Amino acid sequence: MIRAYKFLMRPTVGQTQALAEMLRDHCSLYNGALQERRDAYRHVSKAGITYGMQSAQLKEIRAFDPERQGRWSFSSQQATLRRLDKAFQAFFRRVKSGGTPGYPRFRGVDRFDTVDFPKDGDGCRWNPTPHDPVTRVRVQGVGHVKVHQHRAVAGRVKMVSVKREGRKWFVVLTAEQDQPDPLVATGSAVGIDMGIANFLADSGGGFVPNPRHGRTAAAKIEAAQQDLAKFPRVRRDKRTANHRRAVEKIAELHGRVRRQRLDHAHKTALALVRKHDFIAHENLRVRNMVRSVAPRPDPDKAGGFLPNGAAAKTGLNRSISDAGWGVFLTILHAKAESAGREVIAVDPRNTSRTCPACGHVAAESRTTRETFHCVACGHRAHADTVGAINVLRAGLVRREAQPA
């Protein structure tokens, strides 16, 4: 199995400058390759340029500009071109499926934050001196950079990435390791229902409160954005030090919220995996759930629009994004795979409208957001608990229906 490790780097002032130059030059290569593809499609041939054609030009590019492109790893530059090729493949796939195309865009220096090294030892080597008590990573053109390794790395390191987040630098390792021994079986099965008031409810009647990290930090983020708005809009090379500090303040606040949300998701998923052998959850399409409401033109007034509940839907979308359901479910599946647990996603339709006692389905049974009162048999329970019970039952049925 594949596992990723992320460690904080502690570069010197000179190494920080070299790392920034590495990102800048890879960004320039990415934008240049994108421009070449655009020009070729418009003026030369509709067939366009492929990754193989651009990769074959790298040798000439490095020889022509040895100061900027020639000093970095050849394989990392191929990875940057491969990243652009994947962006185009995704673009054409969305066009064929009828989705929003999203043509690949040019990257600004501040928005190009990662350089990949496909093979450990080719341009970047993890811990080149294992006998040294200080862990380091050697990056071509930068040197040996100290790393704060807070946990051991199991398995063989296959890929190394250098990433910038604000003013901090991280090294991300992708390691290949054997399947770990599964956790001891508990004989327990659970269904979970994701929500807004509570982060989740389980079929046993338990609840996990919603921490609402984004809402807690909303006032500070708003104040920081207002401070940034006081500065006039000027070119990047004309911005003052106060302007840069205001931008960094906003990035720091958003980064803190992101880390808090990840920490909560990891701890919640780990508790479920340790306690239950089988976990069923709703197959939520979060991207569709947070879409904006389509406008409603007024047929009686040219250029006018009817109320469409956009304000309420915006608040709901913000709450769903703040809860981080998609991130949590991704982490849950990864931890379950490592622990030898089984996780199944089921159809969420009518899970909160079906009575767990008699099976009657009616929207009127859910009288409020928290109360479920069956109109057929009179069964009363918390609405989220009812949803979790129905999710568990649907998950067990689906597991039994799966071929051996």
TrEMBL record:
Organism taxonomic ancestry: Bacteria, Bacillati, Actinomycetota, Actinomycetes, Kitasatosporales
Keywords: DNA recombination, DNA-binding, Endonuclease, Hydrolase, Metal-binding, Nuclease, Transposition, Zinc
Transposase putative helix-turn-helix domain segment(s): 1-43
GO molecular function: endonuclease activity
Similarity-based family: In the C-terminal section; belongs to the transposase 35 family.
Keyword Metal-binding assigned: yes
Record-linked PANTHER family: RNA-GUIDED DNA ENDONUCLEASE RV2885C-RELATED (PTHR30405:SF11), TRANSPOSASE (PTHR30405)
The name this protein goes by in its record: RNA-guided endonuclease InsQ/TnpB family protein
Domain of life: Bacteria
Pfam families to which the protein is assigned, alphabetical: Cas12f1-like_TNB (PF07282), HTH_OrfB_IS605 (PF12323), OrfB_IS605 (PF01385)
Organism whose genome encodes this protein: Streptacidiphilus alkalitolerans
Record's keyword annotation contains Hydrolase: yes
Residues annotated as domain Probable transposase IS891/IS1136/IS1341: 176-292
InterPro entries in the record: Cas12f1-like_TNB (IPR010095), RNA-guided_DNA_endo/Transpos (IPR051399), Transposase (IPR001959), Transposase_put_HTH (IPR021027)
Residue span(s) of domain Cas12f1-like TNB: 325-391
